Every structure is written in structure tokens, then in C-alpha cells.
Amino acid sequence: MNKLTIIGNLTKDPVTRTTPSGRNVCGFTVAVNRRQKDQNGQSVADFFQVSAWNQLAQTCQQYLAKGRKVAVVGQVSVHTYQGNDGKTYAQMDVMANDVEFLSSRSEAAEKSDQMVAQATEAMGGNVDPQSGFQQVESDDLPF
Fold first, then answer.
1. For a disulfide at 98, which of 24, 32, 49, 73, Cβ 3.0-4.6 Å?
2. 136 domain-assigned
């Protein structure tokens, strides 16, 4: 059985693309801190390339952002490649079966408030932030 569970933080915003067959895939990198420190007392992290597909991809794109904490469960594979410096490197890829968003609710609420502010600005400033509805004057109605 090949099943990996990691908990870490996104290193940058996720990127979603659509395959030629029409399937969505969302890619992001998760940094997982190790318990031990290096010789200089600095934290050491492992980096995992994660891909989420279809509906999970859409959900990840909508709710994840750089710095958010996530738990990912999926199959892991390792690929090697040769860098520009001629050295061989290994990359750990995870095909996610499940992604759980672990950032605090206050962080999620802050992001939500930012989205409401952006929507309000886009609608010309006349959106009620509590309800999210745009106020309409009766003279603007076509009937």
C-alpha cells in the first residue's frame, strides 16, 4: 500500500490548469518541517509537489493560498532529474486523495473579509458588507 500523510504549509499560491481531456489539476508545494534542526540550529524542511484532480482541484484553488497549513493524504512517487549544475536531484510528488485545510478560522475569516472588500470595490462601493447584497434604487429597476 502506498499512502502518505503530510502536514505543512504552502510555499506559494496553487496553480490550476486543465488537461486536453478537460480534467482540472491543481498543483502546489507543501513544506514539511522536520523535528530535528541542522548543525546551525536552523529548521530543516522537506518539500512535496502535490497535485489534486477534478473537484478537489477546484476546491484547493478556491481556498488555498501561500502560507496556509494543510494536511494531504495521497500516493507518493519519487522522480529524479538532473539540474543545470549537473547534479542529480530527487523530487517527491504526491497525488492527493484528500486535502484538509488546517489554518485557523481567524485566518479564513480575514481572507473572507478581504474578498468582501474586493467585491464591494468592484461594485462601486454600494454593497452591504453584512449581507453581501448590492443596494438598488427603485429608479434603477426596469419594471
1. 73
2. no
Cα distances (Å, whole numbers) of residue 87 to 29, 82, 142: 22, 6, 68
Residue at 68 is within a domain: yes
- The C-alpha angle 96, 97, 98, rounded to 5 degrees, equals 95
Q: For cell 434603477, what's the residue? A: 140
Number of separate domains in the chain? 1
Q: How does pLDDT run across 15-25, given as a tens digit for each residue? A: 999 999 999 99
Residue ranges of alpha helices (H) inside 5-143 are 54-63, 105-122
Domain assignment present for 121: no
What's the angle, vertex CA 12, arms to CA 10 and CA 76, rounded to 5?
A: 50
3-state SS assignment for residue 60: helix
Please report, for the domain that includes residue 25, its CATH number. 2.40.50.140
The proportion of the chain whose per-residue pLDDT surpasses 70, expressed as a percent, equals 72
Range of the domain at 69: 4-102
